[in-house]
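Case study.
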Amino acid sequence: MTPTEGLKPESGLAAEIEVEAYRLLFPLQYYERHLAESVRPDSRALGRARDTTIALGPVTSADGSALVKIGDTTMLAAIKLEVMTPCIGSPDEGSVAVDFQMPPICSPVVRPGRLAELAPVIAKQLSDVIMSSGMLNLKELSLISGKAAWMAYLDIYCLNADGSLFDAALLSATAAFSHLQIPLVSLNDDGKVITVSEELKIKAVEPINKENRKLTIAIVPFSLTCIVHGKYILADPTSEEESVMDTHVTVVLDSKERLVSLYKAGGAILLHASVVKDCIALARLRVEELSEILRESLSAMEVD
Amino acid sequence: MRNDKSLLRTNEKDIKAERAPEISEMATGTSGTYSPSQCLERKQQEQKRKTFQEVDWARSDGRNFHQCRPAFLRTGAASVASGSAYAEFGSTKVIVSVFGPRESKKAMMYSDVGRLNCHVSYTTFSTPIRGQGSDNKEYSSLLHKALEGAIRLKTFPKTTVDIFALVLESGGGDLPVIISCASLAIADAGIMMYDLVSAVSLSCIGKKLVIDPTSEEEAWQDGSLMITYMPSRNEVTQFTLTGEWSTPKINEAMELCLDACSKLADILRLCLKENALELAP
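After joint prediction, the assembly is written out as follows.
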């Protein structure tokens, strides 16, 4: 018996319950019926991403932070700067440590004490993309050549996991770096770097990095995750869609529309080059959207 | 009643500031980084100590001593959870998600009352110095004890309700905020309770009683008191006292706290009502 036959539309509450039960019992058929009409259950077009918002500076105890929401997926990224001795091979460079965590609040499958399976995968992907995209110039993180440099600890926490985790995480990381404000520091008598606070100004201590307070971010990487099912490509899937269709493709483009990274891992469907080209075309549209949103939120911060 | 725990804690914090670079080396392993704000000059610390020992000092955020911080509360922060809440008290920001009632782990024995599983964790950037949040591992069991008395466990036998809290930014008075936010999240999830639980803490600095302390005031406190209260039933679910207190002082402190708890419970109720109005068609 095919579940798609014999369904008569009823009105009112009974119909709602039937639709919900159908959605839970036969998810693939539920989605296929929607895809045949080129629409998704949340009435999006197949190539459209969900509403994205960026809020800069929600965490005041960190040097730079950003909260990103793509639909219901919520990511909080924050950067804390600490001082380290640079390694001998590159005395003029600072360093960045990227960590992605999924605490138990974000999803019903994550249990405290046991790490989510997805977390280290996304952490490694993020770290690769951030370092290889040329977004950061590590020389800007240097304080005193050979003696002291900044180590930027970037921690990204997933607060609500509803699909497209990598996209939201990358966007929050770039937003946090754009928001980062390097604190004024100077050397104290022991040769250690300390922050210059209001009280210490009385001692006429000279800050050693007066000019360099914000990082220059030349190239910004943006990403789009798509899932593929049959001949349909769905952009920015929710977690429900991701669980039903398992072939993901993640495309990362930079603001000059060059390809930074392409990731397609396993899945039941093998992709033709034409499908990959379509995904990249969708990603290009998304890059324009996202760079506009990021620019708006940065200029809103400047007015403040 | 004399409890030296609080005196020990203040001394610990002094030692921490001095030994800080070594601790962060241990924490980060081979790389040995330190935060520039750790190396506060000795003079600054002496200055701070003097301010708190004066007779008349003003609180840094302009409140008077018996005024709590303004609260921002929102339910439904996490859509994947059965119920969730976000609370912001000054600069303390906490998000709590409730999952359940769901299946207990197979290893657990049969129980004809429901079970509660609480877990509190800190983000690495929640404290001014990275990674200090992991010092508060006892908060998970304190949260459990505070909520146990308020939830009607008999209504969900054989299953477990998971309560997870994440502290996004720690600005002082963390545990009371976590408890209040958790009771809001549990109400949002539709789990039956006897009453909403609200919690307020109070610090004793010198001779002054300071309600709802910030982390700076907490660091210099001589004693602290935290009460978790169910206002409509006039019942206290948890009472924590540290430091040296005289009986009349405890009475005064308790009255202040209970009054603040009732007001906070009203605010929690208002938040739930507003949320219900938003969702209603």
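Observations recorded in class. The longest strand of chain A covers residues 148-160. Chain A has a mean pLDDT of 83. We will return to this complex in the next lecture.
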